[in-house]
Amino acid sequence: MVIPGFDRWTSFTVCGKLRRLVKVKKVGHAGTLDPMATGLLIVCVGKATKLVERYQGLVKGYSGVFRLGEATSTWDADSPVIQREPWEHIKDADIKKAVASFRGEIWQVPPMFSAIKVGGERMYEKARKGESIELAPRKISIFQFDIERSLEDRQNLIFRVTCSKGTYIRSLCADFGKALGSCAHLIALRRDSIGEYSAEDAWEFKELEEAITKNYF
């Protein structure tokens, strides 16, 4: 089943709501969406949960906004700005050059606030307790990466990226800010696609809820 996530709904929230709706214990998603993110979430129900790993390995497409010159502890807009750096010096040519350096296979360090488990505990749980762990960089692939400056606010960069499994867009944003001699954090994120599945063709949860309730399936 393919449904979109909602702003402030975690992937766990969606699975829980769907589990109660269809009255099936086995419900799993094929790729975590951050709480601030919207867009596509593939959810497998019942025997289809065996397909989760297959879906997780598919190429993913995202779009959103980076904000230059400001950094947060979570690398997104879910926490206050804790660092400010000059950004006015960054030219369009600098952005174009930096974008090219991120295409292809690159090494990326996941954010502390992530669902990765270390010692049986989620990283975000450790981060909330003030623990700091240095994670090893992971090799990922950026197949497509395009950025343009916002016409309304030149501090904002509008991006579109197609990437491999395991890519953290928050990390991409933070690393991109550093590459420009500044800092950055993610202020908007939407998952547009997973493999051949598009957010444009997905069910809105309310539509799905109505269809299941009225036994349209």
UniProtKB/TrEMBL annotation:
Any one annotated GO CC term: nucleus
InterPro entries linked to this entry: PsdUridine_synth_cat_dom_sf (IPR020103), PsdUridine_synth_N (IPR002501), tRNA_psdUridine_synth_TruB (IPR014780), TruB_C (IPR032819)
Ranges for domain Pseudouridine synthase II N-terminal: 19-169
Record keywords, A-Z: Isomerase, tRNA processing
One Gene Ontology MF term: RNA binding
Matches recorded under Gene3D superfamilies: Pseudouridine synthase
Domain tRNA pseudouridylate synthase B C-terminal: start-end pairs: 170-213
Protein name, per record: tRNA pseudouridine(55) synthase
Lineage: Eukaryota, Viridiplantae, Streptophyta, Embryophyta, Tracheophyta
